[in-house]
Amino acid sequence: MDVSFVIPSYNSQDTIADAITSIDSQAGSLSREIVVIDSSSHRLVKEVVARFPHVRYIHNPVRLYPGQARNLGANIVEGEYLAFIDSDVTIQENWLVRLYSRLISIPGLKAAGGIIYNANPDKTYSTILYWIEFSEFLPGSGSGFRSFLSSSNLLFRRKDFLDSPGFDLSFAMSEDMLLSRFFSGKLYLDNTTSSCHRHRTERKDVLDHLKNLGFWAGRLRLAGKGRGAFLSKVRWLSLMLPFYRTLVVIKRVIRADPRQFLKAVTFLPLVFGGSCYWAAGFYNGLKCGRKPTADSLDNQKSENN
Does the pTM of the predicted model rise above 0.85? Predict the structure, then answer.
């Protein structure tokens, strides 16, 4: 087997069929297997996956974080290469051949990923979440080595992944940042291929998700890892994060596509508001007090950093 695709799943019955179909549509002759690691408390995901007899379905009775599911899958598959795709993501037809060619042609490269499109670009709050969460991987971003790649679409040599610490089992989010630190300087973003991520569209769902993203980012800094770890010692500086993140996000949006200038300026107040929710979660993460809301975590269909 050349490539093993591992899809972490939780309540992903509405999206996982599209994810599997996009894998089945990959160009090239590389042999591949698909494994779904599902920890839903119902049978709906299993029923959807059953439409694809070639897909291996594994159910875990205890809720797994996405990183936990990926680690489990990585240890039971057989491929020389290991692909992680989220259950609410579809990948471009050339995704596998493009990233595979990067891994075999660039010396020392450990993992590669594609740029990320928003599957709900017509929804305002979906756009805000997409910009804040994935501003480093927007269409128009240049190819090259990166210090961080999103776990929503990644290709590794399986041996390299198994030789790493894997995804941190104690993190529901930001686990891809921790893994990226291990492979620092050996990650590649390829803008000649892409994935498409389906985002939340309702205001409350988006804001809850941003707060949870911030919480786990704060936990990361509390552990002394990642840029801004000093904030764990001066938590009050977190009050400045909404201003900083808003400027960074708007700058990245315009740099990736100057045609988005007017839209970016128009959405600036909403980006700032979303960044405030992210920063509130970040502060709670630094305190390591309140945990993310149970409803928003239970409603997660999959994880993206």
Answer: yes
